[in-house]
Specification:
Bound molecules: nicotinamide-adenine-dinucleotide, zinc ion
Largest sheet: 7 strands, mixed
Helix content: 25-40%
Structural class: alpha/beta
Number of strands: 17
Distance between the termini: 13 Å
């Protein structure tokens, strides 16, 4: 089959690879109809996270079940499904508690599994024609048959539940004020989820105009951090010492604002942006690294968090990969009911063959490439 293969930083190509095959009676094979490029793929694409040449990316997948093992009972060939990016067993302590990003079975020695992601287990990605899905009864989320809402449903694999999870980690409640750092697809989904939950005011911080415009379009207030300290801009607009809840949807690849010698990690901005005793949800990625590691981004995440100021303001924070599977069913039902339309963030659909070009453009944050869906069947 054809798949997008990683060769090294900024180098990906569409090539023939071995077809996946079922390895356990609990597996399914899915023919991918839509798979998305994610900001998380850029950590490997840009070489911030080491990835082995030859791996196939892709953790935002949906498609049609092609075949199931003898132990699979809830889906069958022909069913349309979305595959939230957590590869999880469904029966360990964390899965039972809904912490599906931290499955204790699939990736021993590391919390949680994902398709096509280094460090998150041996699972090949779905930027390909076919994908093997382990524990298919748990990992396939059934969708209505047909092709309706394809763009909305594709976002259930990651960024919609991840944005929603950010609001859960931050504890957003109706009527509250929220600041989201990052207007990438994840930040926009966090802002959208906060508005769905009834937040009274949502600020979205970035410096990329077309992304800030999308934030404004859904009813959030855009804050361009090149125009001055984003925290001060938000406090001026509110006339208060900060928002109730803050969300980090940037992570350790933050770029520097005007006047900053090096990019202050977004978490330190959030510590000032959130009112004393408020709370923060961090879904932007910080990967562990030794302090001496040759990766300045990771070392920053490790060393520069202003814990003194965090303590002084009495804040709370939740972090981690999102338990995408824990929310996917409810968010699917909101889409079906016409109450949510996350696809406002989707700007492009291209055949898999154009994926290398789409990666380069998404990485450059080009207008029209805020969220790219790949269609392996076309
Ligand atoms: P993205 O790279 O498209 O978006 C990041 C945005 O942050 C960009 O628009 C960029 O301009 C902006 N930015 C950079 N520096 C900034 C700063 N100092 N202040 C404010 N904004 C700044 O990526 P994305 O797809 O939206 O993903 C965002 C982050 O979420 C990534 O780190 C990704 O790995 C992570 N992620 C986490 C999970 C999870 O489960 N926790 C899931 C998906 C993605
Ligand atoms: Zn993703």
């Amino acid at each position: 089959m054809r798949a997008l293969v990683y060769h090294g930083p900024y180098e990906v190509a569409v090539e023939e690879v071995d077809d996946p095959r079922m390895e356990a009676p609990t597996d399914a094979l899915v023919r991918i109809t839509t798979t998305a490029i994610c900001g998380s793929d850029l950590h490997m694409y840009e070489g911030r996270t080491d990835a082995e040449p030859g791996i196939v990316f892709g953790h935002e997948n949906m498609g049609i079940v092609e075949d199931v093992g003898s132990g699979v009972t809830s889906v069958r060939a022909g069913d349309r499904v979305v595959l939230p990016f957590n590869v999880a067993c469904g029966f360990c302590k964390n899965c039972r508690a809904g912490k599906t990003a931290f499955c204790l079975t699939v990736n021993p020695g590391f919390a949680g599994g994902a398709y096509g992601y280094v460090s998150m287990g041996p699972y090949r990605g779905g930027q390909a024609e076919y994908l093997r899905v382990p524990y298919a009864d748990f990992n396939c989320v059934p969708l209505p048959a047909g092709t309706e809402h394809e763009e909305d449903f594709a976002l259930l694999a990651d960024i919609f539940p991840t944005g929603y999870h950010a609001t859960e980690l931050a504890g957003v409640r109706p009527g509250e004020t929220v600041a989201v750092y990052g207007a990438g697809p994840v930040g926009l989904m966090a802002a959208y989820s906060a508005l769905l939950k009834g937040a009274s005011r949502v600020f979205v911080v970035d410096r990329v105009d077309n992304r800030l415009q999308l934030a404004e379009q859904i009813g959030a207030t855009p804050i361009n951090f090149t125009a001055g300290d984003p925290s001060e801009q938000i406090k001026d607009a509110l006339s208060e010492d900060g928002v109730d809840r803050g969300i980090d949807a940037v992570g350790y690849q933050a770029t520097a604002a005007e006047g900053e010698e090096q990019p202050a990690i977004v978490l330190n901005h959030l510590i000032s942006t959130v009112r004393p005793t408020g709370s923060i949800g961090t879904v932007g990625l910080y990967l562990p690294s030794d302090p001496g590691a040759p990766n300045e981004h990771a070392a920053q995440g490790l060393l520069l968090l202003n814990i003194g100021r965090f303590f002084e303001r009495g804040l709370r924070m939740g972090t981690g990969q999102a338990d995408a599977k824990a929310y996917a069913h409810q968010l699917r039902d909101l889409i079906v009911a016409g109450r949510a339309k996350p696809s406002f963030v989707v700007s492009k659909q291209v055949p898999l063959s154009e994926a290398p070009d789409a990666y380069a453009r998404f990485d450059n944050r080009e207008p029209g490439y805020s969220k790219v869906l790949l269609q392996p069947g076309k």
